[in-house]
Automatic annotation (TrEMBL):
SUPFAM superfamilies: Homeodomain-like (SSF46689), Tetracyclin repressor-like, C-terminal domain (SSF48498)
Phylogenetic lineage: Bacteria, Bacillati, Actinomycetota, Actinomycetes, Kitasatosporales
Protein's UniProt keywords contain Aminoacyl-tRNA synthetase: no
DNA-binding region: 31-50
A GO MF label: DNA binding
Gene3D superfamilies, sorted: Tetracycline Repressor, domain 2
Domain of life per record: Bacteria
Domain HTH tetR-type intervals: 8-68
The keyword DNA-binding is assigned to this record: yes
Name of the protein in its database record: TetR family transcriptional regulator
InterPro entries in the cross-refs: Homeodomain-like_sf, HTH_TetR, Tet_transcr_reg_TetR-rel_C_sf, TetR_C_31
One Pfam assignment: TetR_N
Alphabetized UniProt keyword annotations: DNA-binding, Transcription, Transcription regulation
Length: 181
């Protein structure tokens, strides 16, 4: 197996393997040994790159949160009017809810950790702050806060409903929250 110096992507493979295992087995089913095997790295790489399992999990979830914020950025970037921003949020909700079930599971696993452990709570707070800041480019801060909650809720409901709600319902919900008082 290659050493860390000749394997520049080892750390990223470990983080990706950790997220894949969390999606398959939950946080409780994750171990250094399982992650190393999934990433195809020596077990010693785990302690070389991370101070422990909590550090590894927190870094993996930080990368996941960054990924979701990038989706927010990508969807909202082209919006120049409020109507375009509303449609971008509608698209975002549908994109998030139609993503692989893996993303839904990772989000819920992160929220569960955040409910129990302060570092994960702080990560979620940073994630929400970043999402809201992007929404605030198009909507007042109180509206952005409500809209962020709507995005989370509708994403979860659409992912779990059978059949999921249609685009018209999503568009109407976004319009109601973003309507001027």
């Amino acid at each position: 197996m290659a050493t860390g110096h000749t394997d520049p992507h080892r750390r990223e493979r470990i983080l990706a393997a950790a997220l894949d295992l969390i999606a398959e087995e939950g946080v409780a089913g994750v171990s250094h040994r399982k992650i190393a095997a999934r990433a195809r790295v020596p077990l010693g790489s785990m302690t070389y790159h991370f101070t422990g399992i909590d550090d590894l999990l927190l870094q993996a979830f930080t990368g996941y949160a960054d990924h979701v914020v990038t989706l927010f950025e990508d969807h909202l970037a082209g919006a120049t009017t409020v109507d375009e921003a509303r449609e971008a949020v509608t698209d975002l909700i549908h994109t998030l809810s139609e993503n692989p079930r893996r993303d839904l599971i990772l989000t819920q696993e992160l929220y569960t950790l955040a409910a129990r452990h302060e570092p994960y709570r702080a990560l979620c707070v940073r994630w929400m702050r970043r999402s809201r800041t992007l929404l605030e480019h198009h909507f007042p801060a109180p509206t952005a806060r409500q809209l962020d909650a709507l995005i989370e809720g509708l994403t979860l409901h659409r992912a779990l409903d059978d059949p999921p709600s249609d685009r018209a319902l999503t568009r109407e919900a976004v319009a109601r929250i973003t309507a001027a008082p």
